[in-house]
Specification:
single chain; globular; 11 helices; mainly alpha; two-stranded antiparallel sheet
Length: 294
């Protein structure tokens, strides 16, 4: 029963969080709290799971985003899920799996960084994802004005889909974080007695890093995977909003507040989290099998 109970906690958390916009508010300048409204929404959603009403959404006039629908249009959640979910899942999966094999060797090298390289990396750690996205867009515009060459799409409009700049933005936080943490951990590992013993035995610098340093970095990296996945999912909202991408986070603001739609979107984002975390675990496993063998 314990695994079942543990699995129910995230479900109840999502159902509860989705009620906050109507449960908590301000009335006549005072904070108001109406838990009974939340209980009613949750009960209605659970009942609707069996008759299908919890998987419907409504588009009102002020939230129209398709030319072929009208105000009051009712659609199924599967319709938007099939359209938005694959792109969001692919972005987080691919960016996460790219970040790991780049960040680990880069962090091992960065432990020796000095001068402008160290300062540049320190500057990157201070840039928030939204500022980095705007900086990339501005750079592309300036290059286009000077040369007439469009190196990348600055946003998605119609058939012109932005991919490169969103991917770079999504990569920024986890990549910089992993490089910084790996660099710090590498310095710590190199002071261990077994490293000093390996050096005393005359093992080469490359062999020590491949056999001892890299191998002992991987458990640390594995422990950081939940945090890295959270970074990717947190940046996903910023990326999809700023680059006008058709992803799952778009549903958090596109159609207004609809409790069933919000709950289903949060469950979908949780699924993306689990998929991404699983992919990162497999990436670390592949690195262990391929690069950390004796």
């Amino acid at each position: 029963m314990k695994p079942i109970a543990a699995g129910c906690i995230p479900v109840l958390l999502i159902l509860s969080v989705a009620t906050l916009p109507v449960v908590v508010g301000v009335e006549q300048g005072y904070l108001s709290f109406h838990p009974e409204v939340g209980v009613g929404l949750i009960s209605e959603y659970l009942r609707g799971v069996f008759d299908g009403t919890s998987f419907r959404y409504v588009i009102e006039e002020e939230h129209l985003f398709r030319a072929d629908v009208h105000s009051g249009y009712t659609g199924g959640f599967g319709e938007v899920l099939s359209k938005f979910f694959p792109f969001s899942a692919a972005m987080t999966l691919v960016c996460g799996m790219i970040a790991l094999p780049i960040a680990i060797p880069a962090g091992m090298v960065m432990r020796r960084a000095r001068g402008w390289v160290k300062h540049l990396f320190g500057f990157l750690t201070l840039i928030p994802d939204f500022a980095f996205a705007l900086l990339l867009q501005l750079s592309v515009v300036l290059i286009y004005q000077r040369t007439g060459v469009l190196v990348a799409e600055t946003a998605t409009f119609g058939e012109d889909r932005a991919v490169l700049l969103p991917a770079l933005t999504l990569l920024l936080l986890p990549l910089v974080y992993l490089v910084r943490q790996t660099s710090h951990q590498t310095r710590s590992i190199l002071t261990e007695d077994y490293i000093l013993t390996a050096k005393a035995k005359g093992l080469s610098h490359r062999l020590i890093h491949a056999r001892h340093v890299f191998r002992n970095l991987l458990p640390f990296i594995r422990a950081e995977l939940h945090y890295i996945t959270s970074m990717l999912l947190g940046s996903l909202f910023v990326v999809e909003y700023l680059f006008n991408l058709e992803g799952m986070t778009r549903l958090l603001y596109l159609l207004g507040y609809q409790y069933p739609l919000l709950v289903n979107t949060l469950f979908s984002l949780a699924a993306i989290y689990l998929l991404t975390y699983g992919a990162l675990q497999m990436t670390v496993f592949a690195l262990e099998r391929g690069l950390a063998r004796d």
